[in-house]
Amino acid sequence: MKSVRKLAAVFAALLTSTLMLAGTATAAPAAFDRAATTATAAAPTAPKYFTGVGGGPYNIAVQTARATAYEAAAREGYPAANCRVVRGPIGQQINETYWQVFIEIYCLPPAAPGAGPIIGVHSDKCVDVKGSNTADGTPIQLYTCNGGAAQSWKIHSDGTIRALGKCMDVQYAKTENGSHIGLNSCHGAGNQRWEKLPGGLLRNVHSGKCLDALGWQTGNGARLGIWTCSPTHTNQQWKGAGMNG
Fold first, then answer.
1. Mean of the per-residue pLDDT values for the chain?
2. Are 77 and 119 in contact (CB under 8 A)?
3. Quick one: which of 242, 183, 185, 181 has its CA closest to 206?
């Protein structure tokens, strides 16, 4: 009984501690994707953590903990491919044959219907939220297209361009050439609203300047910003399904 109480305290501490997102993504069985397609709740729009606890022989406990975490995510509409293990497996041995194991996963929301990549004509790389991080101020960059949620964009009727439940934003509402683009909570101001121009340009309403692969850079991690619109400059020309909104 003391061991059980001790385990409960350990798990409680883990759940209330600061969460570390570093770690290697771990693929989930395809069954969890099938479960996600049967979710009845409205499609989620924000990231979320899910926990799973399993009991039994260690290997079985680990499998059960993973299963319960991914099944919880699937019930709320998070595809398994959008989730990764960020904590655990952490186990507590109760007796010679019985373990309890804790696992925590972090899930990104599915792409909005009609969302897709925005691809630079000059670089042939995708507009990407760095590290799939949803914190306000996360840089938006170029990166090799991979079909992930961090590269699934949709232009909404209010002119905002959204991924991971947040908006493409000219940081600090700056208007100077070279001002950086980042991800931010949507608030509808002009520095988050964009106009599609002929030739695949995207012009920011507040600044009147265009989305630009700064310095004509094409490497992974190249920063995006705004610059005076130049319709003949291919580093300001964009294509892909994300431009169809």
1. 86
2. no
3. 181
Q: Give the global pTM.
A: 0.68
pLDDT in tens, 206-232: 999 999 999 999 999 999 999 999 999
For the chain, how many residues are written? 245
36-75 tens-digit pLDDT: 444 445 778 788 999 999 999 999 999 999 999 999 999 9
* pLDDT computed for residue 30 by the predictor: 43
Rounded Cα gap, residues 26 and 65, in angstroms = 14
The CATH number for 116-240, chosen from 3.40.50.2300, 3.50.50.60, 2.80.10.50, 1.10.645.10, is: 2.80.10.50
Would strands 238-239 and 161-163 be described as parallel, antiparallel, or unpaired?
unpaired
Where does 38-164 show beta strands of DSSP type E?
Answer: 48-56, 83-93, 99-107, 119-120, 126-129, 140-143, 154-155, 161-163
Q: Where are the beta strands (DSSP E) in 121-245?
A: 126-129, 140-143, 154-155, 161-163, 166-170, 181-184, 194-197, 201-204, 210-213, 224-227, 238-239
In the structure encoding, which two tokens stand for residue 219, read together? 């490497």
Handedness of CA 139, 145, 151, 156 (dihedral sign): positive
